[in-house]
Design a protein that fits this description.
4 strands, mainly alpha, two-stranded antiparallel ribbon
């Protein structure tokens, strides 16, 4: 819907507003779920999510634009034919690969970060929520800034800079020993900011890479590709790490290495994308100011 309604030159800012909701969910959701679970049982956070989902579905139905103009066409292809045409497009396949690499970068490391911080770094269970609290709070403020920079300096440039920068916190964090809590919070916050920051220009570019006539089908497949990539990254990461006799996590640095390679590869792939109707992204002229 962002790709359909928001001009490309302002789409970075629009994506930053939407993705800041993930940061807000991290800040509010994790402590709230822990409080609810402590107050009742571990089942209740899931019940709360289900109830909120129903309420938000009603709200979305009432406030989001209908966007049914494309349904008026009488020559719309069948579902299978439409999906086939999406996959047949070379630019779409580049976009799916790019989207998969974005997800793979973070999820090679993120699923195991809590257990690593507790066993190898020495955090206790009460300190772990602080990691998400500070990281989410920081991204809540930096998302808007990154969105504005993406619109001002170019989305490919901002994505490439952040995708290269994320290698540093990934490598440092996965090689930590026992250090003080402020250092852990600081490093995790940097990683949160950069990992989530990539997604702002990245998703703006993915949406712009789709053929407008099949953008809904394109985004549906893209969502499936992202889920598959997240699962694959977690699976590969689980094959790499191990636990020694003392319970310490071993080989976690290799997870970061795999994620770093995926991030650097995404910098190359993003330059293969084409924004529909404007030519190659890297050669796209700056849009005129309104």
């Amino acid at each position: 819907m962002v790709a359909e309604l928001i001009p490309f030159e302002r789409r970075g800012r629009a994506m930053s507003i939407i993705l800041s909701a993930f940061s807000l969910a991290t800040v509010v959701g994790v402590p709230s779920s822990l409080f609810i679970a402590a107050w009742s049982s571990w089942h209740m956070p899931f019940v709360a999510i289900a109830v909120m989902g129903l309420l938000l579905s009603v709200l979305a139905w009432r406030v989001l634009p209908r966007m049914r103009g494309h349904l008026q066409s009488h020559d719309r292809p069948a579902v299978l034919a439409m999906l086939t045409s999406v996959l047949a497009d070379v630019n779409h396949r580049w976009a799916f690969l790019f989207s998969a690499l974005m997800m793979f970068t973070g999820f090679a490391v993120i699923p195991y970060i809590t257990i690593y911080l507790q066993t190898n770094v020495g955090l206790n269970k009460q300190e772990v929520p602080l990691i998400y609290l500070f990281g989410g709070a920081a991204t809540l403020f930096t998302a808007r800034w990154i969105g504005k920079l993406s619109d001002r300096h170019g989305k490919v440039f901002m994505f490439s800079a952040l995708a290269a920068l994320v290698v540093l916190p990934l490598q440092v964090l996965t090689h930590l020993g026992a250090v003080a809590l402020p250092w852990v919070i600081g490093l995790n916050t940097v990683m949160f900011v950069v990992l989530s920051g990539r997604m702002i220009p990245g998703m703006a570019l993915v949406g712009a890479s789709a053929n407008p006539e099949v953008r809904g089908s394109f985004m549906a497949i893209n969502s499936a590709v992202q889920s598959l990539s997240m699962g694959a990254a977690a699976f590969v990461g689980g094959l790499i790490i191990s636990r020694d006799a003392q319970g310490m996590v071993q080989n976690y640095g290799w997870n970061a290495m795999v994620g770093s390679v995926a991030s650097l590869l995404s910098i190359w792939v993003v330059r293969r994308l084409v924004v529909r109707g404007t030519g190659p992204i890297i050669n796209q002229p700056s849009p005129p100011k309104p």
